[in-house]
Design goal:
The protein is mostly beta strands. The chain has no helices and eleven strands. The chain has one domain: Neuraminidase (6 Propeller), CATH 2.120.10.
Length: 154
């Protein structure tokens, strides 16, 4: 995770269904000073428009970053919201019915992915099965080690 107050690495979603590429990212630009998820759309002149919060993905707790699957039908975020496996960040997922619908309420990925330590910076691979993330859980070799988990189907 980047230093407090800095925007996190963005997740670019090229929305072929409506022809408007979107950029999702975490930022503290809101009035509450907590990281929230924002989205902006690529304009015809090649610049991005104003960023707006994604209310379905945000909570009163920090959501520093998000990774949106290439087809826009699944997001993975890390959050310190209640209901996690520990006192820090966990990885959560959310899906819309279609790219035209709002995101579902985020669901914790549970103890198969999350631990009592911090899990953050999730990135879903284009195979829709491999989820890469960082964690400071015990058994690693550094402060934040890289992990991958693979689901059977999706």
């Amino acid at each position: 995770m980047n230093a407090p107050g800095l925007d996190t690495a963005p997740s670019f979603f090229e929305n072929d269904d409506v022809g408007i590429p979107q950029l999702f990212f975490g930022s503290t630009r809101g009035t509450n000073g907590v990281h929230d998820i924002y989205v902006t759309e690529l304009l015809a002149d090649g610049t991005f428009g104003g960023a707006v919060p994604v209310p379905e993905l945000n909570s009163p707790q920090p959501e520093p970053g998000v990774s949106v699957r290439f087809d826009g039908l699944e997001a993975f975020l890390f959050s310190a919201r209640p209901g996690g496996q520990g006192a820090g960040f966990d990885i959560w997922t959310s899906t819309p019915e279609t790219v035209f619908h709002p995101w579902s309420a985020p669901t914790n990925l549970g103890p198969v992915v999350n631990s009592a330590f911090n899990e953050n910076d999730p990135h879903i691979a284009s195979d829709r099965r491999s989820l890469y993330f960082a964690s400071n859980r015990t058994g690693g070799v550094g402060e934040a080690d890289l992990y991958v988990t693979t689901r059977l189907k999706r």
